[in-house]
Each structure stands twice: as structure tokens, then as C-alpha cells.
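Convert to structure. Protein one:
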Amino acid sequence: MAGVCPYGRFTHAVVRGIPESFGKLADGGEGAATELAKAQRQFGVLTGALRQKVGLQLVEIPADPELPESWRMEDVAVIQGDTALVTRPWKQQRRSEVEAARRVLAELNLTVVEMGAEEGVTGGATLEGSDVLFTGREFFVGISKHTNHRGAEVLADTFRDFAVSTVPVCGGTRLKNICSMGGPDTIIISNTDGARKTLRVRCLRFLLTDHHYEVLTVPEEAAANCIYVRGPSKVDFLLHPTAEECPDSMQAFQKLTDYTLLPTACSEATKLGGALSSFCLLINRKPHAF
């Protein structure tokens, strides 16, 4: 397959600062009660870990108070290899968030594919990256309040080298709120009632593919979202929620004995339905792109 590399190898992380309007909704409404200063501290710890411990080059887009949800960088693009699909968020008010991301991705020499804004082009497609799980072998797309079937079709048309399966997501959550990659062949899955309900749909599609995955089950939903990076010297890094946030899941993470575990707080974003992976777009640039 063109542009395929071992899962988890990244060189860059694109992030966007926490705006003063953090905690508000893109439509002007109020979200859950959050602490701005605490959110900014947690963002700083996360970005510091990605840069200093994991060794990624950080590209930071300035915060924009006019775009209160723009810290959710994961939503605005899906990247595989040298191709970046700029998405179309469900909320009309969030669609201007993609503009800064589009510029940065182009500057990083990625081939930028547009979903398009016209109904006739996309058929009303909506797609947010937090509903997309790429395993290195195939894509799973959560069909949710935020992402529809037409959005999944656009993704499949963009990344034709990979199989794309849809997974209906129950309630208002996103697919990556209940599962994420914990390694090249490992999926971390929440064991909460909501996650089990989602994963029962369509006969546990995650486990019925042509590829075999190990499953690491965690008892708390917030613990299911982690960031895995295959670092230099083949070191496996896993950023995961802290013991304070997910005390019952620490035993599960300790099973990953060969990993460098990096507990990283994310409580303020979690209040808004976000997660660790919400904050960044991970990119693997080929050496000639430097």
C-alpha cells in the first residue's frame, strides 16, 4: 500500500492553544463548568510531554478566542501518510476552525484534500477526526451525532488503500471517547455500559475484521483514550489519563510492561467531551520533507 509505515511512528504534532473562551460552545452557549487556568496548565504538560519526552516536533497554532472549541485539533483533519483530509465538523460554527489547520498542513508539504462545503459536492457530509480510529491497517469511523455515513464515504474515497468500516456510536459521544490505539496491534476499549452498548452493535465489528488485534480493557471511559507513539530507538510511549482521573484503570496500563507510560491530566477537556487525543494532529513526515 502506498504511504504505509508501521503504526505509531510520528515526527510532528500540530496543536492549538487553549483560548480564553474555553468552556463555551461554538454556537455561543455555555458548556460544562471548567477552569481555564487549569486547562491551560494541562495543555502545557501535554505539549511538553510530546516535545520533550516523546521527541516530536511541535507546531502550535495560536489560540483564537473567537473559536472556543478550536483546541479540538483532532476533529479538523484525518491524516495518513502524506495525505490530509480536511474535515467538515458537524456544527456550522466550527467549520472555520479548519482554515488555520489547512495552512499548516500545506506548509508541512502534505497533500491536502478538501471535503468541500457545497451540499452538491459532499451530499451534506460531516466528519470529525475524533470519530476516526486508524489502526495502521484499516479505518473505523464512528457514525455519531458528529459524523454521518456520507462523511465516512468521503474518507473511504480519500484513503482507497485501506478498508473503512463504520461503527454506530450510541449517545452523544465520539468513537475515540471509548477506544483508541494502544500500540500497532492493540486497541484500548472502555468497559463502561455505554461502550459495551456501542461495541455490541454489528457484532463487535472491531473484532471481526481480517486483522487480529489485542484488546486492553479499561473500566473507566476516560481511560480508553490514549496517545501511542513509537519513539526513537523503538521506544513505545503511551500518554494516558492520570491515576487521579482514572484510578481503577492504572492496573490495566501496568500490563504494558515494555512501554514508557506517561500519565497526562486531561480533566478539563473531559468535562467538555474531549480527551487526550483531541488536542493534536500527529504527522509522520518523510525525511525529504525536512
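Protein two, convert as well:
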Amino acid sequence: MDCFAKKEHNIYPCMFTSRNSSTHPMSFILLGIPDLENFQSWIAFLFCFMYVVAVVGNITILHIIRTDNTLHEPMYLFLAMLATSDLILSSSTQPKMLAILWSHAHEIEYHSCLTQVFFIHAFASVESRVLMAMALDCYVAICFPLRHSNILTTTVVVKLGVAVMLRGLLLVSPFCLMISRMPFCPNRVIPQSYCEHMAVLKLLCTDTRVNRAYGLFVAFSVGGFDILVISVSYVMILRAVLQLPSGEARFKAFGTCASHICVILALYIPALFTFLTHRFGHHVPQLVHIMFANVYLLVPPMLNPIIYGVRTKQIRDRVI
């Protein structure tokens, strides 16, 4: 069946064959960033720069932590988990996004699209839980410094890492399984730069209330719980910091907490905006929605190595 996806004066032929026995399309069309065609080369250059910073920064952190035995402590092991999550999260979207912007390679194969959905949501969940674990580690280190090594042993950290990974994989797997068993409409156009669960869900020609309900459950059980724990942890941390006798120590601790909170907000605010816009923000301009959707996959992986790595003395000294 021939079809066409039209965007203003550009027409992209949908290179699909007739539906197979499972009513799955052969591929989808990712529009990229509509309305900014004249600036796509500059946007691609910016995205490429951010991606390179993210990859180099996170690989550097992983190498330093792996090769230095003195950094095999809870804080740095959590940082290694965060760096791994950042690498996978950014690499699952950025190469295709750059191909769209630079080479106009808008087509993405069906299974590649579902794979992208899986990796984006699974490792966004992993990143959220790692940030929560790092907040708890910081809370224990500041509020219970003498018991920190007994509470967060290497075994406990490894078990937490495995649990974080399993949570992301198990919660997100049903997304792809449910979608793969449902029929798609003739429209194969995704008005974004990557395949996201709700964007793909809108292309289904069937009742998607179960999918949407499960998506809401995952979003609030993952994001809601993690945000609550992070918020309580930092409130307790700030209370402990205010009781420090030294003004210099309070200033340094406030600076560290402020930078960490900025990184956390850089992930959660765009992610929540994107999530809520898909469901309720029908009047939000498409360009605004798409830019926010790109921000939460680009900015945190770039900022995390700087905030958690360069500003950490033990890692900074080894980089220099």
C-alpha cells in the first residue's frame, strides 16, 4: 500500500510494503524537528556537540572509576551506573536524530523503532532510580557519617544496581510486547526525532486504554516515588547542612546540593512536560513539545559528567 507523509511542501514517500500477517508496518517516518528546516544544520551541530561531550565525559568517568581501586566506593559506583545509563540513553537516540537532521534519513525500521522505545524508557527509569540512590547515599554520608560504610557496603550497592536495572527492564518490556500485538493505522508518521511510547501508541488502530493506563502507572510509580524520595533526602540533607558550625562548609555543601538538584530538575522537568503534553497538552505548540522531548535526552547525559565528575575532586584530579 502506497502512502505519503506530507509536511508543508515536503513530501516523504512511505517506503512500506503491504501489511504483514501481524499488521505491522515495515517502517515509520520520523519528521525530526518540523518548522525549523532552515536551521536544522545548526541544530544538528549543537546536538552533535552535546552528544560528543556526553560520550567523552561519561566514558572518561567510567575509565577512571574502573582503573582506580580507591574509587570503588558507593558514591563512585553509583556514578558509574549513572554514566552507563547516560551513554545508553543518549546513544539510543542521537545517531538517528543526527541522521535525520543532516542526511534527511527519516525512515526507521519497525523493530528498530520498538527497540528505541524500549531503551529510552528502560534507561530513563534506570537513570531516575540511580539519581534516587545517589540522593540516599548523600543523605547517609552527611546525616550518618560514622555508619555510612556499614549501611552502604559494596554488596548492598551491587544489589541496588541489579534491582535498578531489573526494574527498568521489567516495567518497560510490556510496552513493546503490547504494541507488537496490535494493528497499526495507515498513518506511519511520527512527528518527533525518535520513537517514544505515546507517539507510537497514537498510530495504533485499536483501543489503547490499557496501554495508556499502564503508562500512567509506570510513570507515577517510577517518577513519582523517585521524586518523593529524592525530595525528602535533600530536605534532610539541607537541614543537616544548616547545622554545620562553619560558614565555609555550609556554603560548599549548598553549592554541591544546588548543582545536583539542577541536574535532577534537568531530567525530571522536561520528562514530565513531555509525558503530560502527550496526554493532556493538546494545545501546546508541536515545536515546544518536540524541543522539550529532545532536551531530557540530551542535557542530563551532557551535564552529569560535569556536575558529578569534574566537580568531584577525586575524579577531577585524575582527569587533570
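The chain has one domain: 27-317. The radius of gyration is 21 Å.
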